[in-house]
Every structure is written in C-alpha cells, then in structure tokens.
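Dissemination and training. As part of the outreach component of the grant, students in the summer workshop were shown how a complex can be specified as a set of sequence lines and then modelled as a single object. The example used during the hands-on session is reproduced here so that future cohorts can follow it. Participants entered these lines:
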Amino acid sequence: MEGMMVFTQVANKIQQQNLWKNNTPARIVAFDPTQPEGRVKVLTEGYYSAHSPEISWDGKSLLFTAKQNQNDAWQIYEMNLSNFKVRKVTSSDENYSNPVHLPSGRFIYGLFPKDSVKIGQPLFTCNPDGSDPKQVTFTPNTNIALTVLADGRVLAFDETSSTDKQQNILMVMRPDGTKAELFYQGPVGSNLISSVSETTTGKVVFVESNSETPNGTNITSISYNRPLHSRENLTSGVKGDFQSVYSMPSGKLLVSYRSSETERYSVYEFDPETKTLGKPVFADAEYNACEVALVHNHEKPKKLPSEVDFGVKSGLLLCQDINFLDPNSIKDSPVLQKAVAIEIMGMDSSMGVVPVENDGSFYIKVIADQPFQLRTLDENGQILNQPCEWMWIRPNERRGCVGCHEDHEQTPENRVPMAVKNLPVNVPVHIEKIIEKKISLE
Amino acid sequence: MKISTKKMWILGILIVLGLIIYFPGHKFARAHVNYRTGVEDHPLLCLNCHLYMHSESPITKMMNKDYYSPINLAVSKDGSRLYVVAQEGNALITVDADQEKVIGKIDVGELPHSVILSNDGLKAYVSNQWSDNISVIDLGASKVIDTLQTANGPAGLAISADGKMLYAVNTYSSNVSVIDLVSGEEQKRLDVGNNPTGIQLSPENKILFVTSRRANIAPYGDPVKTDMTLINDSSARITGFMTLESAHMAENVAFTPSGDLALVTLMRPKNLVPSIQVERGFMMNHGIGIFEQKENGRIIQLMLDEPNAYYADPFDVIISPDGKKAFVSHAGVDCISVLDMDSIRALINSSTPEMLKTYENNLGVSSRFVVKRIPTGANPKGLALSPDGKKLYVAEQLQDRIAVISTESLEILSTIDLGGPEKITVSRQGRRLFANAGHTFQNQYSCYTCHPDYHEDGLVYNMASKDMGRNLTNTQSLREIGKTAPFKWNGKNQTVFKQDGIRFSTVLTRTEQFSYPDLDAIASFIMTGIQYPPNLQHNPTGELTEAQLRGKEIFERTVDNNGKEIPVENRCITCHPAPYYTNRMLRDVGTLAATDDSIRFDTPHLNNIYASAPYLHDGRAATLEEIWTKYSPYDKHGVANDLSKIELNEMIEYLKTLSSPDYTESLKNVKHSENTSN
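and obtained this result:
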C-alpha cells in the first residue's frame, strides 16, 4: 500500500464540513495515484458509514471510525493494510471518534458519552485491543484528537461549550494528558474543518473557515516553532473550498478541493511555496473525496515518558505571579488592581479560596482528574478576573505557569517563588490531608 | 558421511553441557545486566560494559582514535589561510582557504583553546589551556619559536591596540595575564569575573571586554549574576564590571564595527524555579546580551529561542564587517543563527524599559531579528570571517571539519576536512550525544549545558524531589567519575546506565529515552572520556609545599589538638581516602537542611576540588573554608573546630592539591625520569 492515497468518499452533499459531526453515509477507499485511470478500492465495504482514516507511521495500520448500521454508535476499527483484515477495537453504545496512533502503541480517541453535558466529550487512550481505556482530558469541552506531532505531543481540537464565540482552538498535551496548553488560537469566527498535518518543513497545516472568507474554507499554515503568531492563509488567492489537507514527503500538500458549491470535492496537489493549486489527482462525479491521506513510511514521533502515577491522587500547580502583566497588553489600559487571592472553581461549586504570596505566587495541590478554573480576587474578595479556561491536572503531575495575564510565549523569571517556601495548599481547601502514595526522592 | 557413534555422543554431551551452562549463565547475565542498567530489556552485550567502560584496558586504548576537535580559528589578513586550533590534537592546523585543504600542522601545548594573529600577520599566538602557556608561532617557518607563561588555564586572546601587549584570559584562575610581547614576560595579572574565557578589544581600541562563564557565587535564592569585566587598553587596568542579570555562560563577545554595541552569547538558567517541566522554557533559555556603548548605555538581553524550539549552548558570536549581520554558533543544536543587526537596533530603540525587561524572558521576540538558522555539522564552536566578509568559517568541533558558509546566500558552500579519523568510536559518539540537545524535549539543553567542559556549572537546582522548594542540589562534576559510583547526592544510582536511563528521560530530559546503543555510547564517554585538567595551579610538580604537607597531616590525623582520639568514622581520611578521596559510602555529615528529606549523602570525590565551588550537597558553602567555619558547628563533618585558622587554611591548601590519580602518577613518572637522568 506504500504510496497509495486513502480518503473518505461521501456521495451526498456534505452538510457540515466537519465529518465527525456528520451522520451522512461515507466510505473509505484507497487509490493508486500512479494509476490515474484506475479505480478506487473500497476498504470499508459493508459498513453503513466510515470516516476519519488515520494511517500509522510505518504505513501498516489504518484506524477509522465506522458504524455498520445507521442507528449504531460510532466505533473504532483497525485495518491491517497488508491484508486488509479489519478488527473492531471498541464495542459499546457510546460514540467514539477520530482515533489516532500513539508512539507508545496505544490509540487516542474522542468519546461522546451519554452525559456529555457534565463531562464534555473527552479524549481517552486504550490498548490496541481496546482494553484499559484511560481518560486523559477532563473538561466539559469537546476534544477531537487530530495528530501526534513529531515531538510526541498530541494536538487536539478544543471546542468549548460555554461560549457563543466561535473560534478554532487547538490544544497540545502529552499523551498521558499532562501539560495541556494552548497551541493555536484562530481569529474570532474561525472553525476547524479538517484534521491537521505536520509538514517536513516545520509547519502545521489544516483547513479552517473564518470570517475573512465567509463563503469558503482555506488552508491555514502555522509554524511549529511559534504557532500562536505565525498564521498564514495559503489559499486566499484560490477561489473555492477546501475540505482536508495532508503533507506529503515531497513538501507538497494533498488537498481535498472544489471550485464551487455545485461541484464535488476532488483530490489535488497544492504547492505551499508558490501557493498554487496543481493538477487534480483524483476526481469522481458521484462522490466527494474528503479526509485525504497518504500511506507512507515516515519517522515515528517521539515516545514521551509519563509522570502519571495512579497511586497518587493529586497534582501540583505552581504559578509564579498572578499579577504578571505583559507591557504590550496594558499600554493603553488603566492601572490594574492587584489580586491577592485565587478562587478555584469546580464544575458545580467553589473548591475554595487560596491567598497568594506577596510576589503573586501560589502553590496548590489539586485533586487530580477534575476540571477546574481559576479566578482572581482583590483584597475585598471581589472578582478581578473572570475564570480562565478549564484546566485539569493528572495524578502526580507538576505544572507551572508564569501568570494569569501571561503571554503564552513568556518563560518564568529566574527567582524562587515565595509560595514554595511552604507546603502546597490542598484544593479543595476543606481537605486536611490527601492520603496517597509518597513519591520517593529522585 | 555417516557420523560415528562416538562423535554423536561427544556432540550430545557438548550440547547438554552447553545447555547446562547457557540457561543458568544466561540467567546470571540477565540479572547482572538488569542490576547494572536498572531495566529488564537492555541487550546482553558484554563488550559494551567490559570493553568500552574501562579506559585503561589496552584494547580500549587501541580502539580509541585521536581526533582533532577544532575549537577556534583565525583567518590571515589576505584571507588565504585559516589557522585552526585542534583542541584534542594539541596542534595548530594550517588550511589553504582557496584550495580548502590542510597544508600543515604545528604541534603546540596541551589542550589549546584560541589563536590570534599578530598585527603584522607574521606570528600566531595559541593559548594552551592545560599547559598554562602560549605558543608563539612563526607562520612563515611554521614552527613554535617561543613559549609565554600565563596563569592557570589560558583561553581567549587579544592584542593591544599598539601591538605591544598580549592579553590572555586565564579561565581556571579567573584572571587576565598582560604579557609584554617584546620581552615575553607577564607584566601583570588582573582579577576578572568567574571562569572567564572570551576577550575582545573595542573598535576604537580603548576598552577590552572580558566575558565570564560562571556566575558569582551567591546563596541559593539570590539572583544569578555574571560579570563582564572592562579593561582599559592603554593602561591595562580594570575600569569596571558590568553585570549580566539572571544569566551565565557568557562564552564570547563581539563588537559592531561602528562600536555602538557589543554582543555576548549567554544562557539564562531557571535554576531558582522548581524543575517541574521543560515546556514553556522552564529549565533553560539561550540568547544574547547587548551592551550599548554610550553613556548610560543599557545592558539588554534577548532570547534566541522560540516557543517550541530552543537553540542550546550558544558559543561564539561574530559580526559582519558591514555591521548588518551577526552570526551565533549553537554548539548544542548544530546550527548558526543569523541576526539582523538593524532589526535589533530598531527593537531596542523602540522599547520601553518595561518591555525590554519582559523581552528578556520572551520566546517570541527572536522572530523580530533572527533571519535564518543554518544547519551545520556536529558541535559548531568558533567562528571567523574572511576579510571581505563574504565567507563565514565554522569550527565543527565533533566533526573534525570546518564549514564554509556564504554570508550572502546564508548557505553552506563547502566543508573542509581536517583529516581526523573517519571512524567514530563508541566514546566519540557518546561525546557527540553529550554535547547535543537533541535528546531533550524541544532541544532545550544538552548534558553539556549544565556540565560545561564536562564539569559543573556552579549552580544549585531545585530538581531532586517531587515537592517544590525542597531538596536543593548542587550540580556535580562528571570528570573522572568512572570509579566513584554510586551517583547522585543520595547515591541512588549504582551505574551511569541507571543515571541516564529511563529515569533520566522522565525527570530531566522529558522526552524519549536514549536508545540502548546511544545509552551505551554516552555511558562509555562519561566513564572513560572525561579527564581532569592538570592541577598546575596548586600542584604543578607533585611536590607539596611545607604548608600543604602540614595540611596533609591534619587531613590524615587521628588525634585532635587536645590529644583526644578522633573516632574512626569521623576522620577525614576514613571517608575520603586516596586515590579518589571517597569511600563511596553514604554518610550524614550534619548538613541536612530543613527543606531536605531525611537522607544520607554519597561521599563526593575530592579530586580537583579547588575547581568545584560552591560546596556541599546544596551548594551552601561558597568556599572550602565555609564547610567548617559555617556548616560544621558540631564537628559532624570531620573534627575541625579545634583547628586554628592557620591550620584550617593549611588543610584547605592541601585539599586544593588533590588531583586526578593519572595526573599524580604522571608527575611521579616525570620526577622518576628526572632522577634517573640525573
């Protein structure tokens, strides 16, 4: 299968660009681009619908989401690409989405649980046989696993349910769910349409809709080195819509494109250097070609070690200065009042108020695997800053941040935070002692 | 052919014997390797340990190669010649720059560091860091014609504006020798910052800047501060010190041609921040310091790192003749950063002091002035420009090669092979891994970053335990530790394999662990490839002075000054016996801090202890003296409170003479040889 293209074919008009929200029948096919007159090979014969193909780095395994009957829940399947044998990985009445291979050999995927209001749509990892599922994200948001970067971290789509402001947010985290942080934030009105692909030139590309081009979708490129400030629209000069993008070893991109709404998506080559659309590679009058990928052996991402220890019930969070202010952000703002405490907000109630030190630092020990938000309070207990994004901390994880108003590109000052001169404050604050395994000295 | 019954029997017995030996033998080998490596699946390769980990083995010596390891270079005035310091080759290699090939090699002293050409271009001066002297080379005759004495560990060199004086920066003794080039005599010695290396004369020929690598010793929690020393050239006197805040490892300095700015390479360690993650630059950042050369000129620091990519171990900096571009070599990530100087000027001129303060710790600011990163061979160090500024020459230290880069296209034009061994030995591969940040998350630091020159960076870190703010630890030297297991202050790791295996990736590098071949290579290098510098400062001949001999007696005494017998377990010599001055056992010496877990400490070895300040497990003792005057009130760290000040001083003078066993042995051989010849 080396060199073959794999993509999803959808016969009907695509209602929503994001196929993972779609119940339209679809099938996954393979096509040999060196045989342009050839036919596709249907890989998911017999399924009502299948989508989200994801190919392992050695080109030997294909993961996808499928349902055999219309009213079934979406499940994860794995196909051996040498003999096309399929194995069902998950089996439940909950919906699974977008499985991705991890360097450890496990898979990561999204789960749409029945009670998605309370616990959101989190990410899980499991063994290749589906056993030992472990939740790794813990917010009320919708998380979709997209890819594993070369550095070994998982890039995921993060859609918050709590705001009506639409914005494409990509978060990055280690496969064990630790060190989750913002990777990319699109402009207001943007939305992620496709999965993402990391190129050989240090870029990350994906399809995004945004208010700049309300009638179309574009390929956005960001630099891995500096993702928050390197956004570039590669296809502003191309009329039409894109549905997916995949980086090829040659440096060119395989894209799913249509020139107008009346046409079907076909597969094209796109040159990111010249920003020009090349020749069509595959087109079919009956089907849209979406979610295109290439079967090729390439370097496996790094397998990151895990600090998670389930014998430990908590994690540690250190903030250097909640009153840190980026001078660029407050140039025209009045002097802000100094916060003297933080309140940790759980899903249903406050988990307590923790005073911060004179230097603005705090050091807390938080019960692991629970979503929480932080807000800052002044000396009268009044709220200075509304809650930040939902966070969580994994068992035995230790995390640090520079401050509440931090620029995400800011590193800490080299000074001892006053807060670490004392023991961490337990959160929820009413807990006197957290009984857990003691980690020995390194 | 029919096999006879007898042969069948013999074969059968051999097979049975083999099975009897193999299974328990294999089981033993598996258990042995598991213990030594701390994992259960390290390949059973006996040679990796029993051959590559023993430097004195004759086979190891045969297998080792003599690499050149170029570190610095100079270009002749007409651009036709390159003069390359081969640090391990103990030579100055002459290269025809036009033909791009080696045309000569001149043997110099031990571990040469820098080269500078005389103003008339007829001579070269090469600093020999392990010989405490400078080789004077007649370039026409291609031979050493004189040797100039310096203080301890000469590195960077500069020539006075009038061409009459040579300044040699002595790294180990932290001073600068001012040498009269006519008489060849050292005229004076100026005390400068801690562990200095680089030196540069300003374009208007008035001031020399001397960089320091190590920060000034200060209690943990005090800001990290590193000096830049200013010397007036005409008077050869120190005019002042400037401070790089929160930075250290300032290796080299360069002035813009107009003289408006001086740039220095530096690192910004986060040793005061608990080592809880690598993401977001929480461990180490790398950048440049900018010294404005005007009245009330500012000292500004800008990072060269990016939010998801770090450029570890910046070494050299050089500025193009037109002042438009600066080039920085990053030894830890095998690349050269190209900086636009006008963009830097625009940035610093348009920024308020508050903004500049923020930029010191901002990973996005580099995008405003870094125009390109040029990949190079292994471990790029010294830089030199052709006289017309069109070519940049890069000493690729662990590639035995010089890279030639076009300063216009910013592409590699060619490479010049210096003729070192083609084969990369296991230990050499280990050294490459040691010096490369590729095994750390986002290349944030290499082993060399905290262990410069395979020694230690003089800093204390908060990384030993899960609980933040507890268990501070002083970086330890890696020089000649092969026979001093166990490792870590708590003695937790019996072998270097365990030290650098899976736990290393979980708590320090935070990325994929070393592959077993890489782990074996780096262990081999650490165990066999790192030597102490010769202790020329305190023990140049092996013969101790009278004060040092008295100090030795105190160190080895069994009875105190009051005539009372010192308990065996509390005698210096018990825990610190020669030749490594450690009994390799754990001990409580009364130095546990309130923030320490209750443990005993692995007895450190004392060879070359003079070069390892600060002292004790958490670096609280700024000097050897403080170990007893401040931190042993109850004589738990040996009996010393009965000593007079002079006696303590003499014991400390003795401690400073403790050297590598190989060095001590070599001195004995020299002495024996002298006696024999007499």
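Chain B touches chain A through 59 residues (CB under 8 Å). Students were then asked to discuss how this feature might be tested experimentally.
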